[in-house]
Structures are given as C-alpha cells and as structure tokens.
TrEMBL record:
Coiled coil: none annotated. Keywords: Lipid metabolism, Methyltransferase, S-adenosyl-L-methionine, Transferase. CDD domains: AdoMet_MTases. SUPFAM superfamilies: S-adenosyl-L-methionine-dependent methyltransferases. Belongs to the CFA/CMAS family. Transmembrane segments: none annotated. This is Class I SAM-dependent methyltransferase. Pfam families: Methyltransf_23 (PF13489).
Length: 252
C-alpha cells in the first residue's frame, strides 16, 4: 500500500508527549461515549477480545477493559509504549497485548470480537482503503466502532481562523455519513448506529495571536454550557464535534 498518511510517526509521539494516564481523566473522557460503548459491547465480562487501531496512548482501551471486561490489544506504531502501559496500570488491567506496527503494513495473526478506531482514518488520503482494512481484523458476528472528528462547516471556518495547523492534517472528505454508509455496503456490514455527536469543539492546538484569542473566547462564550449541552442531546452535522458509527459483521 502506498504511503498516503497526512501525519508522521514523530508528530504523534510529540502530540501525546504529555501524560494522559490520570484515572479521573481517563474515566471522564471515555465515559462521555458510554451509550456507544454499550451498543458496541452488549455483554460485560464475557472475556471477548478487542483491538484498537492506532490505540496510543491507551486510555480508551484501558477504560473498556476495566469497565466491560474485554481482553484488549493496542495496535500502534508509536515507539514509546510507556503511556499505554501506564494507562492499563492506572485502570488495573493486567491482561493486555501491545503490537508495535504500522497498520497499513501489518498482517494480523488473529481476528477480534470488537475493533475500535478513534481519530484514525481522517489522517489518510486513501481513507476508503484504510476503512476496508479494519474489516480484516473482525470476526464473523463481531462489531466495529469508528469515531472521527467532524471538522466541516463551522468547524472548518473556525479551524482556518484559529487552528489551521491541526486542520490541514485532517482529510475532511471522509467526514460525511455517506462515506460510512458506503463502507458498510461495500463490506456487507450491518449499521447499528451512525450519527453526529457532541457539542462544538472550541479547543485549539496552537498558540493564538490577539485576533485569534478574541475569536476563541467568543466561541467559548457561545458554546460552553447550555448550547453544547443542547447539541449533545440534539446533534447537528453543522456543529457537533464527532461522527460515530457502530457496524456489525454477519456470522457468515
């Protein structure tokens, strides 16, 4: 497969350089998506297997293993696995596997009951090809959860004004529900849920000049609190932060 990545390994090693293994932080971030985890994993403590594609720094895997009793595997090409190990230690998860490999080249030795992919496919030009590769990890009857940011519409304008470096490493072409419906049809997957979710994400990833600070504070004032609480209950493709889909592979 040709290299169609919009990011580099060094980018991600720098991006997650800070610690992300505080227990309260892990639970707060991951439990926000509780209803989707429940759709993905219908039975707790079943001992079923779960792999996260691009799983660094491990907080989602550690949370799911702790909360749902799955056996977690992290597939990521990051050279530093200490944060992944720390996340599992924080959530008191002892039985896990870490595979250090490039997803686009790795040949899986097993199939999994659950596959999770969070903030991954949008960093590739060939996102359809990357999506299809996820299915090679999924057992018949297994489920796949894919979550990506929604940076179109107002978030795109906001990104150009206040978060451009981050915006340009994302492929906005994949941020449509139709992309995932076509993916499901192409791979004969059942769509259990597919929707926009969350409030407007006003956080940025760069230092701001005076003009940008004014815009950022204005957006924070508008969306923090009631407006974002409303959007969580009533998602909008124009404003909500995320696209989330849960798909199921037929038994045969």
């Amino acid at each position: 497969m040709s290299d169609n990545k919009l990011t580099t390994q060094s980018y991600w090693e720098t991006y997650y350089k800070a610690k992300h293994t505080d227990k309260a932080h892990i639970v707060n971030v991951c439990s926000f998506y509780a209803s989707f985890w429940d759709t993905l994993i219908s039975e707790k403590n079943s001992g079923k297997t779960l792999i996260e594609i691009g799983g660094y720094p491990g907080r989602y895997l550690a949370y799911l293993a702790s909360e749902y009793g799955v056996k977690p595997t992290c597939l990521d090409y990051n050279s530093n696995i200490s944060q992944i190990e720390d996340a599992f230690k924080t959530m008191e998860v002892k039985d896990y596997e870490i595979i250090r490999a490039d997803f686009t080249k790795h040949q899986s030795e097993q199939l999994y009951d659950y596959v999770v992919s969070n903030g991954f496919i949008e960093h590739f030009e060939n996102y359809d090809e990357i999506l299809d590769l996820h299915c090679k990890y999924l057992k018949p009857g297994g489920k796949l959860l894919i979550m990506i940011p929604n940076k179109r519409y107002l978030r795109k304008i906001y990104g150009y004004l206040c978060d451009y470096e981050n915006l340009k490493i994302h492929n906005l072409k994949c941020m449509k529900l139709s992309v995932f419906n076509k993916f499901a049809n192409r791979n004969k997957l059942k769509v259990n849920t597919l929707q926009y979710y969350g409030g407007f994400p006003f956080a940025v990833h760069q230092k701001l000049n005076f003009f940008q600070k004014v815009i950022h504070k204005g957006m924070r004032f508008i969306f923090k609190g009631r407006v974002n609480n409303y959007l969580i209950k009533h998602p909008s493709k124009y404003l909500s932060a995320t696209i989330i889909g849960v798909f199921e592979k037929p038994e045969s």
